[in-house]
Sequence to fold (420 residues):
Amino acid sequence: MTKNNYFHFVLLISFLLLSQTSLQSQSRVSLGIDVLVSNKFKELKGKKVTLLTNTASTSNKGKKTVDIFVEQNVCNLQTIITPEHGLFTVKVAGEKVSDTSYKGIPVYSLYGSLRRPTKKILSNCDVIVIDIQDIGIRSYTYVSTVYNVLDAAIEYSIPVLILDRPNPLGGNNVEGSVLDMTVQSFVGIAPIPYIHGMTIGEISMMFVKEKWLPIVTVKKNLTLPSISVLKMKGWTRSMAWEETKLQWTPTSPNIPDVSSVRGCAITGIIGEINVVNIGIGSETPFQILGSPTIKNINFVQSINPVVAPSIQLMPKKFKPERGLFSKDECSGAFLKVSPKAKNLLQCFCEVLLHLRKYESKRFTKTFSKEKHQMLDKIMGRKNSLQIIQNGGKKFEAFLKEFRTTPKKFLTVRQKYLLYN
Fold:
């Protein structure tokens, strides 16, 4: 190649790379926070704001929403409220989070002594702004915090603006039976399926307009304040997270990337039963599972034919650093889940069925009352652990019902979808 040809070749490659970068930039989704910035905060001009957020909520350029609010001068950021895992998303699951401050702004935890903001916390605000990156799974407590904040906003007649963002499991993926409200809790707060396929804005409007919030049933003549959603631009329901061109910021210690979100939908409940390690504390939380006694080849080979082609189990040996079977050599599987995989709960059910076969002795141990209650709350059904322990036809019917989404919910859901 001559020098002249080489020079033109380099120019061509540079042009193609720049063009690709430009196209990627153009195809990036504009989140609710991006639209607010583009609008120069006109929706909040002169308002005193309480902001529900954490550092997992960023703009499409990666800037933290909390910093965007701190640095602007159109509205007055009075207080910050935060969900489980705290403002910086580093607290482990279930760990209480204390109040603090951030750059001079008071930060009130809704995962310490409180689960719902008090009148005092909200006393100096004109509007509550919600910007939270949920993961699309009912038992993840961010949606429960939003539920409680909306309930308080209605009680104290405070308008709410929700800055929308994508559901990382996609907008079309709806799986699982609706929560039995007799086991309602903070890990299952509303009558929605285990995987609901809605954005935080959509599900918030459902909570309000379906009158699922407690305050609406207690005080029937309430005048609802304005509850509005600042929609995203460029997001469609069929998009996988990778197609949005957005970076993932950890929403909690065990959700470091979007692959862990998909894994959590499959293995999260299994972890509660405490018969296998599911990768908590490893580099791939929720994406591996195993024990010292599983024969990995047989276990994997028996499951793969009965799960969706978009999900593959691959033989895996690992030593957990902590948690169940810490430092022991475990055999089991690594879950490879494609970005647009569906039937995640089918995979969960098949894995659980096969664990009953390959690890049956571990299901006969005595579990605490608290463990029984927690599994009921997460699965959204009474007597869940007892049925799983007993096995048999009743267990199989129980799993079939769990993974079947009632048509009634899909009909209700349709009214609140904001995107095609």
About this structure: Residues 6-25 have pLDDT under 50 and may be disordered. The longest helix spans residues 3-27. The chain has two domains: 32-247, 258-404. The chain is about 35% helix and 10% strand.
